[in-house]
Amino acid sequence: MIEWTGIAAAWLETLVDVAERVSLESVKQYIVPVVQQQAEPAQRVQRRIIATKLLHKLADILPSNEVRKELGPCAQILCQDSNSNVRTSMAQRLPVIARALKNSSDAVSLLLPCFVQLYQDDDVTVKEACMNNIAQCIPHFTNGKEEFCLGLRSYVLKDVLDRLDMCWILNTYCKIAQISQTQTENTTQQIMFTMCRRMSAFNLPVS
């Protein structure tokens, strides 16, 4: 049984590599159903992670309406997965889905709830993946939704937000960068504070 499981996983990984070399009709007929099946919670964790990779690949291949109809629901399911590694992997690929949708309303309705959920995740790695990738999605979201997203890179947002908004982001960035550096007995809280300061160091506003 283990041997057959390994073989199946190997073939799924091969699909990731060859998907872009297959005709569009074959992708729709053969590969999309496989992705939808492997994204289901009943599948093994390894297969669900591979499903996130296939979503990434297919988003660059399929027309935007097919991405919305066929891949969007899979992305939402994988963002809610019970395994943190699956959620992290999907969070890293949401910008590709957002770009492929080519419609700000679809991007907001499908993906913004995913980011909100991932940002509230109990797993630090999932949260970090969410924070790292949400900035890339901002240009694909409807104007007026920016205020729901904190800690974003200013150079990504400079064409979206006005000067007052940019000042607010800079002030917020300074507060996050200086968030409690005193030792506390709450280990979880201390990890979160450290992560905030670390992410601030990586995301110094440059514009």
Automatic annotation (TrEMBL):
Q: Name one GO molecular function term.
A: protein phosphatase regulator activity
Which InterPro entries does this entry report, sorted A to Z?
A: ARM-like (IPR011989), ARM-type_fold (IPR016024), PPP4R4 (IPR039918)
| Gene Ontology cellular-component terms listed | cytosol; protein serine/threonine phosphatase complex
Q: What is this protein called?
A: Condensin complex subunit 1 C-terminal domain-containing protein
Species for this entry? Strongylus vulgaris (Blood worm)
